Amino acid sequence: MSRTVYVNGEYLPEADAKISIFDRGFLMADGVYEVTSVLDGKLLDFAGHSKRLARSLGELDMALPIEMDDLLEVHRELVRLNDINEGMIYLQVTRGAPSDRDFAFPDPDETPSTIVLFTQNKPGLADTPVAKKGIKVISIEDIRWGRRDIKTIQLLYPSMGKMMAKKAGVDDAWMVEDGMVTEGTSNNAYIVKNGKIITRHLGTEILAGITRNAVLRFAEEAQMTVEERSFTIAEAQDADEAFVTSASTFVMPVVEIDGAQVGAGVPGPVAVRLREIYLEESRKAAI
Ligand code: PLP
């Protein structure tokens, strides 16, 4: 079934949606994005995603070509038009399409930003069997640029990381900089030791995950101890549990790191419990 997508104010069949070859997203990865999950036909943490979108745009001096309030309606309309019960909404804003390629930013009064949204239908997203088994990761060097706190569309290195993982016969990669884990290719990384949840502190080195924010809040509400600091791969291999979080995988247990089994080699109780709480609370608050 062909999707209905949203491009610069119009709802169109995906085959009719067109972007200029001069779009700076296409030529220069000059854009930002958000992925919001849908469960029971409702949006998870829309407020968190729109707040981070506004921040990413602000950091790059880029304008949002739509009112924030209208953005919620576009998300909801796409869910309705595409009949999404479980899945994701992808949103991308780029610095638009000037009349020619140039490194300098175009004048925003002459070149409006481009906005695109589309749905990804994923029945069974919440109840995936992968979460019952957990995932395996390898470590790779983190050679991305220094502003990872901005959710830009420059995803070449994370894509290469996923391919390195695939080649190694595992599911994902954790990136390491100066001996410390930064994050997964498309998720935040955590370990659990003696009941304490450890995850890297926020900064320009990692993306402030919307799921991370919610999960840490739920963990504290459930009287779990959280420590925000960096950790090494060796510490992670020696941990009782490991897991990752992202908008589309929620809380996903990690059972192997660089070939070493983590804990008992099966999803640990903290990750399993946090996944349950996250899904339950997010569903309740979904709009
Ligand atoms: N870190 C990176 C590099 C990501 O790409 C993502 C999500 O795509 C995350 C963390 C998790 O962020 P969120 O929980 O907002 O999906």
Automatic annotation (TrEMBL):
It is an enzyme of class 2 (transferase). Pathway: Amino-acid biosynthesis; L-leucine biosynthesis; L-leucine from 3-methyl-2-oxobutanoate: step 4/4; Amino-acid biosynthesis; L-isoleucine biosynthesis; L-isoleucine from 2-oxobutanoate: step 4/4; Amino-acid biosynthesis; L-valine biosynthesis; L-valine from pyruvate: step 4/4. GO terms for molecular function: branched-chain-amino-acid transaminase activity. It catalyses: L-leucine + 2-oxoglutarate = 4-methyl-2-oxopentanoate + L-glutamate; L-valine + 2-oxoglutarate = 3-methyl-2-oxobutanoate + L-glutamate; L-isoleucine + 2-oxoglutarate = (S)-3-methyl-2-oxopentanoate + L-glutamate. It comes from the Bacteria. GO terms for biological process: amino acid biosynthetic process; branched-chain amino acid biosynthetic process. GO terms for cellular component: cytosol. InterPro entries: Aminotrans_IV, Aminotrans_IV_CS, Aminotransferase-like, BCAT-like_C, BCAT-like_N, Class-IV_PLP-Dep_Aminotrnsfr. Its cofactor is pyridoxal 5'-phosphate. Keywords: Amino-acid biosynthesis, Aminotransferase, Branched-chain amino acid biosynthesis, Pyridoxal phosphate, Transferase. Its EC number is 2.6.1.42. Belongs to the class-IV pyridoxal-phosphate-dependent aminotransferase family. Acts on leucine, isoleucine and valine. NCBIfam families: PRK06680.1. This is Probable branched-chain-amino-acid aminotransferase.
